[in-house]
Known about the structure:
Elements: H1 32-62, E1 72-74, E2 77-79, H2 92-155, H3 171-219, H4 226-255, E3 263-266, H5 267-285, E4 287-292, E5 297-300, H6 302-318, E6 325-334, E7 337-344, H7 354-357, E8 362-363, E9 366-367, H8 378-388, E10 392-397, E11 403-410
Parallel strand pairs: 4-6
Antiparallel strand pairs: 1-2, 3-5, 6-7, 7-11, 8-9, 10-11
Helix pairs in contact: 1-2, 3-4, 4-8, 5-6, 6-8
Transmembrane segments: 38-59, 119-137
Subcellular location: Cell membrane; Membrane
GO molecular function: kinase activity
Amino acid sequence: MSAVPAPPTAPPKPTWDPKQLEPPYPWLRPTIRIRLTLLYGGMFLIAGILLLSIIYMLAAQALHVGSELPFKVVSGQVSSDLCNLSGEGSSPAAVNAAMNTCVNHQRQQALDTLLNRSLLALVGLSVIAFAFGYAMAGRVLSPLGRITRTARRVAGTDLSRRIELDGPDDELKELADTFDDMLDRLERAFTAQQRFVGNASHELRTPLAINRTLLEVHLSDPEAPPELQQLGKTLLATNERSEQLVEGLLLLARSDNQIIERKPVDLAEVATRALDQTRAEAEQKGVEIREEIVPAVVQGNGVLLERIALNLVQNAVRYNVREEGWVEVTTELQPGQALLVVSNTGPVVPAYEIDNLFEPFRRLRTERTGSDKGVGLGLSIARSVARAHGGRIIAEPREGGGLVMRVTLPV
Length: 411
């Protein structure tokens, strides 16, 4: 028995996208080219009509259209109040010559008057045309200014901004819609990345805490052999380093966001706390601490700002010279901004290596290698926190070795 063939399936319905639907008459679409063409063509037409009207009125006024002639015939003789005609007994040739001179003189006066007034009218119309053109150009190009302002806000790590441009469906609206779509994708990508880092860091916290507890319990056993004690200390140091890395990743993921809740924070207090936490380490390494701290209040998150100062001071102490090293911390209040400057002696840093120091897991002349000086996230966290507060951090090589770190924050 032969199988019954299955009925043919209907073809899939095409999806309809209104953005991809072309109008029946593309040349009637209100594009920027058509709008500018109509605008400038209309301006030229209106200016031409006004100029012709003014020239016509000036010409009519100069030629005295409808007024009396400059001479008249009285009792068979030609007389004039404007022209110097010959008196009685003059020959017809002399009268005709005098009349011709009078008419030519009146014509020259009319042309001179017409020229002068036409120039004045041209200057006036030019001023009006430039002013009107400037105003209309600003109106037409105002969406570009809106796009530029939004792009600047996005450059300040505020990916929630959108242009949402209204108006005719022209090239500028297409650009704004494309820019908004790109921002949507970027925001989703950054959010997913931060969520992944946060979740992974949270998941790693629990086993690391359990490992630390177990190691501390075994190290507290007085009967443990020395080899096991040494192994436990090594594993505990490795576990502590992993915990620092996880905490750094969590703080880095959080500091990449814009700070919403801001409170007054004194950079002097922040710098003092950072110095208190690193003073013991500096004394152990023989590094002199210098400070010139004055009150400088900014708006931000105190915990994150303290992390900036602590990371910079710790790096300045750890990456220093072995003898006669020093670290100098200063705060300063300037018009519209506050400064936190951390300077230190240390190895010579080439200028081309400065940008690499702010990358995660990057150190001077080493990359992703083990070190007892940190996990390689300190400067990355400091830069992210500064950006989240609307500020910036700049590193400059110091003459003779070391760095000068300048943190600028808006007040």
